[in-house]
Amino acid sequence: MSSSAAMQPQMDLSAFQFIIATVDEQVGVIQLNRPDKLNAISIPLMIELVDCLDWMDKSDDVRCIIITGNEKAFAAGADIEQMAKATTMEMLLLDQFARWDRIRKIHKPIIAAVSGYALGGGCELAMTCDMIVASETAKFGQPEVNIGVIPGAGGTQRLTRAVGKAKAMEIILTGRMVTAEEALQCGLINKVAPVELYLEEAKALAKEIAAKPPIAIRLAKESILKSFDTTIEGGLDFERKAFYLLFASEDKQEGMNAFLEKRKPQFQGR
User: Fold this and answer.
1) Which residues are catalytic?
2) pLDDT, tens digit, 9 for 90 and up, residues 25-47
3) Cα separation of 69 and 109, whole Å?
4) pLDDT beyond 70 at 121
């Protein structure tokens, strides 16, 4: 066993209860697995999801990640049974959104493959991902106002950045569901595919990204995300430093040599 292989983090992917995780052709797929609850996002599910994402982020065997559900539901919201009797102090001390912050810090690109319902926390989870591929049956929404609360895992912020103030106001204040086609038209998602093909479309996109130089992909993702939380001057400064940093990578030399030699590059993530 090589020293790099020995340093790889270990995880038993068969040990999860609320997710199903696989790795194939450098693409990690995490399927939410609470079909009897329409994949409602519970705390145990989030613990497993974040632990698996952390492992995939560190694994050299994974270069792009997909989060998906099943044809009927990506995730139909949070588990309301867990919150119905909770007090303010209980919710504060529970600090459940700390796990969502960890998803935002994953370095590798994450694609949400959505079919059926992506509501409440399910819609927020999809928006936490970097791209969204949806089936024709997908329905997005933030219906929290219907039960007396508002989105709490980033919905008011990410939806507004994705679709603009007026559309976000309409969706969140009415609690209505948005079809896949409408979500595409307003810029919330990347692509709509037939229900039998949406996951394959997501995998095709993930494999295309996985074939690119991993360090450049990581810094490109970080630079794009930086545009949401800094000024244009700060974002440009971050981008330029990332650009210069890549000139120290072996993948940069391989990519440019391959271009000049008219051959396919072999990126190693170094």
Assistant:
1) 78, 121, 124, 144
2) 999 999 999 999 999 999 999 99
3) 18
4) yes
Q: How many domains, the chain?
A: 2
User: Does 256 lie in the same domain as 132?
Assistant: no
Q: What's the rounded Cα separation, in Å, for the pair 99 and 95? A: 8
Helices and strands in the chain, H and E counts: 13, 10
Confidence of residue 2 (pLDDT cuts 50, 70, 90): very low
Could you tell me the CATH number of the domain that includes residue 220?
1.10.12.10
The model's pTM is 0.91
Q: Are residues 219 and 92 in the same domain?
A: no
157 and 59 in a single domain? The answer is: yes
Report the pLDDT value the prediction gives residue 243, as an integer from 0 to 100.
87
Q: Is the pLDDT of residue 1 over 50?
A: no
Dump pLDDT digits (tens) for 64-106.
999 999 999 999 987 677 777 777 787 777 777 788 889 999 9
Cβ burial of 88 (10 Å; 0-12, 13-18, 19+) is: exposed
Q: Long-range contacts of range 183-189, CB-CB < 8 Å, 24 or more positions apart?
A: 183/132, 183/134, 183/138, 183/140, 184/134, 186/162, 187/162, 187/163, 188/127, 188/132, 188/140, 188/159, 188/162, 188/163, 189/114, 189/132, 189/133, 189/134, 189/138, 189/140
**Which domain range does residue 249 map to?**
214-261
Query: Is 73 domain-assigned?
Result: yes
Q: Give all strands of the β-sheet with 117-119 in edge-to-edge order.
A: 73-76, 117-119, 139-141, 178-179
* Under 8 Å between Cβ of 31 and 48: no
